[in-house]
Every structure is written in structure tokens, then in C-alpha cells.
Amino acid sequence: MLGSGFIGRFYADSIQGYRSQDKVVSIYSRREESARKFAEDYAVPFWTTTMEEAIARPEVDIVCISLPNNLHEEAVMLCCKHKKAVMTTKPLGRNAAEAKRMLEAVEAAGIFNGYLEDLVYTPKFIKAEQSVRNGALGRILWAKSRETHPGPHSDWFWDLEQAGGGCILDLGCHCVEITRSYIGKDIKPVEVMCWADTQVKPIEAEDHAIGLVKYENGAIGQFEVSWTFRGGLDLRDEVMGSEGTIWINSFLRTGFDMFTTGKGGDYVAEKAESNTGWLFPVGDELNELGYNHMFMDMFNALEKGEAPKETFYDGYVVNAVLDAAYRSAKSKLWEPVNLEVWRGREGVGKDSHLIEWDADHYLVKEEMTHYGAKKLILKHKVSGAFIQKVLE
Ligand SMILES: NC(=O)c1ccc[n+]([C@@H]2O[C@H](COP(=O)([O-])OP(=O)(O)OC[C@H]3O[C@@H](n4cnc5c(N)ncnc54)[C@H](O)[C@@H]3O)[C@@H](O)[C@H]2O)c1
What we know:
Elements: H1 6-18, E1 26-28, H2 32-41, E2 46-48, H3 51-56, E3 62-65, H4 72-81, E4 85-89, H5 96-109, E5 113-116, H6 123-133, E6 140-148, H7 160-163, H8 167-170, H9 172-183, E7 189-197, E8 208-215, E9 220-226, E10 234-241, E11 245-249, E12 258-260, E13 277-279, H10 285-288, H11 291-304, H12 312-331, E14 335-336, E15 355-356, E16 361-368, E17 374-380, E18 386-391
Parallel strand pairs: 1-2, 3-4, 4-5, 6-9
Antiparallel strand pairs: 6-10, 7-8, 7-14, 8-9, 10-11, 12-13, 15-16, 16-17, 17-18
Helix pairs in contact: 1-11, 4-5, 5-12, 9-12
């Protein structure tokens, strides 16, 4: 494990908690006291303040990168040097150029690579995605994902150089991979329109943004991200298809409401802003945030010698989409997604979606009225005229 902070601890809780056969055997942290404390808390036999030493240990099967964004590349290159399987937290890079270098390096080294995008492994997402893939929603037209909270928990996130961006990069990376997964990861994201601003915080980066990602098949992805949202961690997805709809609330309203006058523990849930009054705790954060299913997939894939569901390639695509978002926020125009590496389908147009009613008409819609009549709206194929039929 590289990094002993916020996500390193969530990951360790999940890695050691779920299958119990997986163990953190070596921990690197910048400061000795943090490395030592992590080693004590998680019964890790080896700790060090030298990154390469932690990676090179013979008992290490896979390296988990839980470091600030500006250190991902250095850590990945060391894994390549020592031919160690690697999994990296999000975002893969601070931009697509960094992500591409990492992708090319792991592939040249021939090492297992996993992209730790936990939010496509949440129980709700897994079920929703299955329904989408089974066709329950028909053709996916629009997929929106929203992640907003009152801002990150460590100094480096707020520094543009170390973080590489503001909430677009930090939170938008989740939203882009979620919406891309609903739309189909083989469908090419082609252009992005994005509004971003720094509305509240004294920072160079954006603290609030909304973006639209256009896909080659006509589907649209939408992300809403903020570091200035008040009220906790808001994680929601909405998917609209030609045959159905999904709404998911993953965190702030999960059907668990609690009231307290404030006596007792301080921790309610990630980024919760209050510990008194009506609260919205999360039953099992590790599971609800997808960490358990994510590490199951990573380790199962590693053991079988297969690629996991999320690889560095996915991290690279996400970075390329977000680079276009940053360009659009500046230019105020739709900006193309520059994908120098693309492994999905090419030239996918809008699928034919017209429903034939009879030889002459397409069906526009049907509706059962409150007065018991079934109405059909039809369009004549040649004249284009709309007519209605009432079936008693
Ligand atoms: N849901 C998620 O997937 C999720 C959530 C939070 C963070 N993250 C990602 O995890 C990574 C780490 O974030 P975090 O929240 O754990 O941050 P953190 O600040 O809590 O922890 C970062 C760790 O890196 C160490 N570190 C900081 N600066 C360093 C430096 N210059 N040299 C060496 N080590 C240094 C810290 O000591 C700490 O151990 C980031 O890439 C972030 O985007 C992912």
C-alpha cells in the first residue's frame, strides 16, 4: 500500500475485511509516524518511508496506489521497473498525457493494471448496469451522474499543481466513468461542453461545474460536480432510455434516517456536515461505495490472469474526456475529445429507433386515458402528418 491517508485506510479496511485472505504486507508513507501508525492499525509487517522499498518487497503481489494525484505516475513507473501488478486510485492522471504515459508503461511492462473507480462497483450500480445491459431501459439516451460535497479533506487537493484540477477532475472522473458505463464503454465520447466556475473557495481551480459529454451514438452523458455543496456527500445517478428510467441515490438518502441530540459518536458518514438533529447515516460505507466489489474484481482478475472491469485504459479515456471539459470551460464551445488510443467501436450512428405501427405509419406513442380510452398517436411515413386513433 502506497499512502496511508483517507483512501489508503478505506482500501485497507476493505482489502483485509472482505475476503480475509488478502493482506497488506508493506506500507509506504511519507512520514515515519504515519507509516508506523498504519502498520500498527492494520497489522502490516513492513513499513517504510521509501516508496521503491515498499514496492520491491518480494512478498508484494500487487501495489495499491493511494497517493496524491501528482505522485501516481512516479509510483506506476516504479511498479513497471519492478514488474509488480498495480492498481491506482482515481483519477489515473492529472491529464490525459500523464494517463497515456502510465497506460503505455504498464502495457509495455506487461503488468496487471487496475483502475480503482469504486463507483462502478456499488451494489446499486451493478444491479442498474445489469438491467441496462439486459435491455430493460432500451436505447440509453441520457445518463447523468452527480457528485457534490463541501470540499476535500487534505491540503494537496486544493493546490492546482498537486491535484491537477478542481472538482471536475476530483469528482467528475467518477461521474464520467459512471455515465460512460451506462451508455456503453465501447461507444466513443466525441465532444464536451462544460461550464465551470470558482464560486466560493479561495482557489485557482474550479469549485463547481456542469458538463455534457456527447457520444458517437447520439447519447448524452452529464456530470454535475461541486466542492461547495452544503449538506454532505450527494451521489446520484439518473439514466433515461427509450424503454425505461433509473434513479439512484447512493449516499445521502438511502432509507436510513436517524435523529440525535448530539450525544455519542462524531462520525456519521463520509463528508457528513452535522452529527446532531436528523442525520442520514450509511449502513456499510465500504460496501455502499463499491470498495468490496471493486477489490473482489481486482483480485479475482489478478488470480485468473485476466483484465479487471476497470483498467488503466478506462482511466485514460476518463482523463481525455475531462481534458476536453477543461478546454470547453475556457472556450465556451463544444470541444472534441482527443483519444489517441481508442479501442471501442468506430462509426456508431444513432440506432434506428422508429417503431412501425402498420405499413404506412410509425407509432409515436400510446396512452391509456382517465376516461378509459386507449389513444394512439401515429405519424404517416410519407406525408409526415400526425393522426390519432382511439381504441375503445
Ligand atoms: N473514492 C475514491 O476513489 C477516492 C476518495 C478519496 C481520495 N481518492 C484518491 O486517493 C488519492 C489520495 O487521496 P486521499 O484522500 O487518501 O489523500 P490523503 O491526503 O488523505 O492521503 C494521501 C497520502 O499520501 C501521502 N502524501 C501526501 N503528500 C505526499 C508527498 N508529497 N509525498 C509522498 N506522500 C505524500 C500522505 O501522507 C497520505 O499518506 C488521490 O489520488 C485521490 O484522488 C480516491
